[in-house]
Each structure stands twice: as structure tokens, then as C-alpha cells.
Amino acid sequence: MAGERATNSGTRSRGESYWELSKRPLHVLLFLLPLILLYEVGSMRYLADQSKGVVETIVAHRLLYRLFESFGGAAFYLPGMALVAVLAVWHLLLKDRWNVRLTALVGMAAESAVLTMPLLILGMVTQRQAAISATTQLAGLSTEAKVTLAVGAGLYEELLFRLVIITGLHLVLVDVARMKNVPGSMLAAAVSAGAFAWYHDVPGLPMGLPLATFYVLSGLYFAGLFIVRGFGIVVAVHALYDIVALTMMSGNRN
Length: 254
Description:
Elements (H helix, E strand, L loop, with lengths): L17 H4 L3 H23 E2 L4 E2 L3 H12 L7 H17 L7 H24 L1 H12 L4 H34 L4 H19 L8 H22 L1 H19 L5
Antiparallel strand pairs: 1-2
């Protein structure tokens, strides 16, 4: 992964710092598992339309679902299972210890809350247009449904735009094309941010320069967090921001 090179497990000491543990796949998996379960249960309870036999979900989750469907898998929960499997396999490949430090998980939650603050401040600049956008897209949804969608956005948009795009581009640019690590990581981050902004361009709802700027800058912020602080932290920051944005900025209009 960009910014993280695997090292032999025999060289790691039991006194590994919080900054390293918080990026290790086992701690990331345990940190994100409650969010994965919350989204899966919340989707069935708050986003399912039993009369139509469908479940409302975010576009990133739908794209991943259709990818699995093209290979013969059609279960709604497959993207969540894939995320768990990726982190578990990554842990096994690194031959990491199975020791879990609970203080690291608590620290990850606290750090995520702190790192959400700059994004909230950035969001205030485009709050009016962002609120209009959110209200238009989520009109009629309950607070529980909005929280479920916010958690799903954190999980599956980060899986798609950061874990897949940045890691994939870093592999091509740095490991294959032999570009230096820093410029390769910066280019991968820029591409992911551009794709993130394009993804949020909703048909029939003009984005406008302030909102487009917000999505590009937030995409760069998420990319930086992913590269420097790892997948678990960036997912939590994204989910926390969206929870605030969807429940407070857009308001509950039921």
C-alpha cells in the first residue's frame, strides 16, 4: 500500500507504537467491523423497500455489488464480506501478530473525531450548497437511514477511491513504472480526488464551483489521511463527517 511497506514480522517488537498499530490490518479490521455490521443491519432495517424487494444504497456499494454480480455473486452483503476478507488476508500476508491493543482502538476513535474537525470547517464554506444537495438527494429519509448511508459512504467510497484507486495507481506508477514514491503517491492522490469529485456530480443538480471545490479538497484530504494514517482512520473520518452533514446540515425532514 502507498506509504506502507511490509516488514518481516520477526523485526517488529511487542512495543510497536500506536501510530503503527493503527495502520495494521488487524486493528483496522476490528476498528471497522462495528461500522460494517451497522451498515449491513441498518440497510436491511432502514433502507429496504419490502414492497419492491430492493435496498437503497450508495453508488459505490452498488458498483461493487454489480462487480460481484458479473462474476456470479448476487448477495447484497458481498461488498462487506469482501472488505473483511481483504483486511484478513492482508494481515495474514504480512504475518502480523494476533495481539490486539484495545487502547489503540480507542485512540483510533479519538483521532478520527479530531481529524474530522478540519473537514467540518471546510464544509462550512460550502454549507448552503452542500445542504441543498444533501436535502435534494435524501428527502424523506429518516435520521437512522441517513446515518446508515453515511456509514456506508465512509466504508465503500473509501474502499473504492482510496484503497482500490490509490493503491492500484501506486502499484502501477511506483512498482511498475519506477516513479519515485512521493510523486507517485501525490499523482495517485490527485487522480483519486478528481474521481471522487466526479462521482458526486449528481445528474440534474448542478454542482457549482464551491461544491466542486469542496469535493476536490475533501478528496485530497481523504487521500492524505489514507496515505499517512491508513484505511481505518480515513473511513471513520469520512463516516463521521457524513453523519454530521446528513443529519445536521440537511436536517431531518420527516
